[in-house]
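Methods: holo model generation. Sequences were used as deposited, without trimming of termini or removal of tags, and paired with ligand SMILES retrieved from the corresponding compound records. Each pair was processed once, and we did not select among multiple samples. The sequence and S-adenosylmethionine SMILES for this entry were:
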Amino acid sequence: MNETNVAQAYKAKTLREQQAAYDHWANKYEPDLCAMGYRVPSVISAVFTRFVSENAGSILDAGCGGGIQSESLSLMGYRPIIGIDLSEGMLSVAHSKGIYSELHQMTLGEKLHFDDDTFAGVISAGTITPNHAPASSFNELIRVARPGARIVFSLRDDPAQEPQYPAALQRLSESGLWREMFVTESFFSMPYGEPEISHRVHVYEVA
Ligand SMILES: C[S@@+](CC[C@H](N)C(=O)[O-])C[C@H]1O[C@@H](n2cnc3c(N)ncnc32)[C@H](O)[C@@H]1O
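and the model returned the structure below.
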């Protein structure tokens, strides 16, 4: 039952519960989400190709899950793509697709095990969201991205969104750490399963 898995992932109170929810769901996640008409991967990868060129350099997929959003980037020639995720189960699905040059278990919201200025572009789909990766994740994504790199991510845009996420965008802009380049219209992201959930895709350029 799809809604149960989505609800469980959004209800997790601790990192351990979150990891367990996705480990449990990993092999059914993609069929479930596709049946719900999950649109974030197609929208975010289309936006990404407008703002990051395929020969820019290393791409970080932050909260890669099973990798749906990076499949189209790989088909378009983006290399190398490095994926990170909390869930070993989701990383295992991503590994099976053969599109990532590296996959690592890492936690957004904690220090990432990459040097400063490593990535030419960052994509993060469906992950920086309540009860998943916290708004503080952006600071580390900015640190590991090169100056001028674009960070492309989805954020919820419905009443269940928590105010710390939009507040972080504004705070980081006011601090001069990045600047907003583009944001999509709001769109229903799982219309056949969770019709009340909407998202926007945002693009920021690292200073
Ligand atoms: C809704 S899924 C999105 C997966 C994929 N990006 C997609 O759009 O299909 C959320 C993913 O975030 C991961 N996740 C949740 N909290 C995380 C955190 N703090 N750090 C890293 N990954 C996290 C989960 O394991 C899961 O794979």
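The chain has one domain: 2-206.
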